[in-house]
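User: We ran a pulldown and think these components assemble together. Before we commit to crystallization trials, I'd like a predicted model of the whole complex to look at. Sequences follow.
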Amino acid sequence: MRAPNAAPLLAVDNLSVDFGEGSPKALSGVSFELRRDEVLGIVGETGAGKSVLARSLLDLLPEGGRIVEGDIRLDGASVLGLSETEQGKLRGARIALIGTNAKALLDPVATVGAQIARVLRAHRACGRREAWAAAVDLLAQVGIVNPERRAKAYPHELSGGMAQRVVIAMAMVANPDIVLADDATLGLDATIQVQVLDLLVKRCRELGAGVVLITHDLGIIAHYCDRVAIMKGGRIFELGEVGRFLEGPRDDYSRTLLDAARVRPTPMAGQGEGGGVTDEAHAKPLLDVRRLEKFFPIAGSTEVVRAIDDVSFSVGRGETLALVGESGSGKTTVGQCLVRLLECDGGGITFDGVDITDMPAKEFRPLRRRLQMVFQEPYVALNPRWPVRALIAEPLRLDPGLDAKGREHRVRQLLDLVHLPLSLAEAYPHELTAGEQKRIGIARALATGPDFVVFDEPTTALDIRVRAQIIDLVRDLQAEIGMSALFITHDLNSVRSLAHNVAVMRHGKIVEYGETEAIFAHPTQDYTRMLLSAELPIEQGLLQRDRAEARRLAGTA
Amino acid sequence: MTVAVRLAGFWGTVPRPLKIVVSRLFMLVPQLFGVMMVTFLLVRLLPGDPALLLLGNMATPDTIAAFRERLGLDLPIWDQFLRYVWNALHGDLGTSIFTSQPVVSDLLERAPATLELITYAMALTILIGVTLAIVSVVRPGGAVDIGSRIYGLAAGAIPDFWIGLLLIYFFFYMLGWAAAPFGRIDTFVTPPPAVTGFYTLDSLIAGNPQAFFSSVGRLVLPVLTLAIVNAGALMKMTKTVFADVYRSDFIRHARASGLPERTIRRIALRNCLPPIITLVGFMVGFLLGAAVLVETIFSWGGLGQYAVQAVVNSDYPALQGFVLVAATFILVVYTVVDILYELADPRIRV
Amino acid sequence: MRATFTRYLSRHPGAVIGLVLLGLQVIAILFAPWLTSYSPVEADPLASLEPPSLAHWFGTDVSGMDIYARVIYATRINLLISLTAVAVAFVIGVPVGLLIGFYRGGLSSLVMRVFDFIQSFPIFVLGMALVSVMGQEIWNVSIVLAVLFIPMFARVIRAEVLSLRERPFVAAARCSGATDFSIMFRHILPNALTPAIVQISISVGLAILLTAGLSFVGAGVRMPTPEWGLMVSSGAQQMILGVWWVSLFPGLAIVIAVLSFALIGDMAKDLSDPTTRDRR
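Assistant: Here's a predicted model for the assembly, 1187 residues in total across the polymer chains.
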């Protein structure tokens, strides 16, 4: 389709980076080429060296980092050994970087217009007013409505998606040849992620720039990239056309990654212990939520935010319900109301036939044994001063029948249950990996053998393989213990693998509710359709990519 | 209700800076009230008859009776407090036992000396503290970084009165470079007519170079004493703040966007401005306390020395007046600091 | 634990210096009578203002008292005043800060207002006024300093508690059945203590400096009590005349004392936090 240019735009040749003599190499022998008008995806897990690679291309390695071997050539000319001033002329002008968490990338005390103008004036001689006009123009180009007003806004007044657009505008200021996007959409809602990536790729195609898309999401690779490089431990393991890669990776590690990213079949309702439950028990749900309401007051106003607005659902024994929605839809608030971390303002919650809505905290405490929660961010949900042993033992105090010895025994059982070695019992949370922390969180929730567990975003911000392991772990537990669960997530992929039923939430209301298969196959609501279309499953990647490409091309025409 | 709604609506249209200033000034009122309560209770802590203590041992039964009447000492404590507030608001803080002058006029006479000392000391403190902090963050591991670390540790441990004495010993006694540590201006030089109360400024206004150089010379050692000790603390705190900003994501992003280092440093400094403003506000409080000690050493004749005299002579009206003035001054400084902070940080909601 | 400690010391020379300096003070406190044959309060008008010599290592002051003996004995007075003040402030301030941070309500904000008022006074000025009003006794200095420091500890702890109580691990603990008491004392307090420990070392240093400063201006303990600030003050007049030893040595003692607590505070901060304990 696109004619390959003779000299590659960017050539990285046998690049090695380390942090001081004798330290392990952060990059070893990395080689790849980037052509004009090409999107190269670089995928890998935490610690694979993706960000180090991006920053070494800009000669902005973290403190102590140095290039020990290899070369980086831009249009055939080496950029290594350039002076700081010459590098400065390269950065932002020829190579632009778009990083993660756009809100943190913007100067909090300057207006976004001023920030774009600042970058513009660093690369082009122009007056203040001219630069401001150009900044407003750029904001319009990245799809920001009412750019004149938005240019005067401070970063804290923007949403995450809008901030990311501003960062893209900053990157596009000097019409760069190469755009490095380092996990640029991490933490954004799926629908926003698609919009931002669409915009980014479209703008780069228009400019004919080469794009390096660094991500840990194979879905993004499948949908946006021409070629893909798989990285691990500072090396590129496989490099090739995306289509061929998706059909069958050559390398073992790449295959593991791809397998891990695939959807597992929907679990059967009432597996394991739950299999023997009679219809009658099914008819009486374990958890029943009726017309739940929760309002938050807005500071300095008499109005309220309706975080939960008339929400009803029920979960039977051995069943899993997924509550999906974008950030701010109120799904986490629902979870917090269920375990009484928040008091609801209306409606009722019935657990196993007992109304727990207004139960005094003292009376509710024994019930916590049966009603547990796994918290979203694994690290911050663990007390940093406590060793793993104490963390897992804490909920066991709810069981008056257990003495110190019994708790000790149970801690070992639980570590085993979540597939963690006993040697971790004395470790502190900061010494664990994200996956291990998540498992500790799960072990804590399962410690008392609960009937019902709320999982708050169990797969967010995890690496591909760890995410798959957690999903498999939860599936096993569902099958073995037959517990009921409420799954709060925006990761639709994991919903397919874990939930029997789905409730789609938006603005505090449930807009669609039904069986997982049915909803994924035939969504009835526009909002659900939009959520589903923003999902980037690798299975349909190639097909959708061509369609999206056509859409983007149509958009430019 | 409608009035409240209309007021709320009007408040919404007020520009942000004005909103900040007005709401801060409004908060000053209860704070001042609290300060007066503390100074009032201070003297009530004394064992014995307040009238006797506040009048000193020269009191006759007649003066005591008149005094009790004026302060309302037979009334309930709440009424006494209200009288104290009433008198204070009308510029009556009692009469100094030691100088036999109204405390207010004593304080007014001495305030410029202290203010001049603190102002220059603050300026030098900021200059040294902020510069060292920035250089040591921008060039980590450099000579300035290591030197400033040792300095920071030492400055926190050195008593200001002691370093003042050492400076006098070296620069006055040994080397003879510095002016004598006796007051704000040489005895044979006539002080310039008071306009601002600052000898340095007034002598310039009066076009009197002799008075100017004399007063500057006298300022050197006390200002240096205050700055050496306090710049260390300001440096340490500024360093923490500046290092955080300098290593933050948005500075890294600015660098990746190709902004020149000079611009980047300016951006980082601008971001540190709100916390630095707060730190400087606290430093003024420290300096006022430290001035008490330093004024004593240099016979400065300011508020600090007045306070020490009051303590030594058990001059309670003077002491009470000084504490009230000092606390009010600090409150005003904090209010200004809060206002500047909110003006400098657009994230603060008003 | 001991291995961790030795490893820490080998990497932090500052901590070693701090411990050595603290050791010197402990020796001075415990063995003062054996370290000098002079009395710290006995005047000898015939030996006024003698420069340092073999007989008087640090020289003598105006009234002929041996400065070395006074510096050594003053360690007891100065550290007694400072450590008592900080201990009292810690014991009262920490629980108060914990309670007003954890339970937000009218009483909590009232307590905070009171602290605001106390802290809106320049600390040295208020200290001077309070001691002068209460009477210039050793214990009064201690009490006044404690009163001035209580708001500092309470504030530091409260600020920590306010942010800690919103952290997910507190919610997680609640889900695991932790009671208010357990959340406050087993979850929040250990995490809030690091800044309080830093505050201890800052406060002890500040207390030593304030005690000395108060005596220096004549608002603290009175002669002939051996106290560092008082000793510096007794030499202040002579400094202009070139008599340096009267003020120099007690001042150095103050520097050593404050420095040792600052260095040990840094160490305690690192060691009290498992996330920094083993870091290089």
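Chain B has two domains: 46-86, 103-344. That may be worth checking against your pulldown data before setting up trials.

User: Thanks, that helps.
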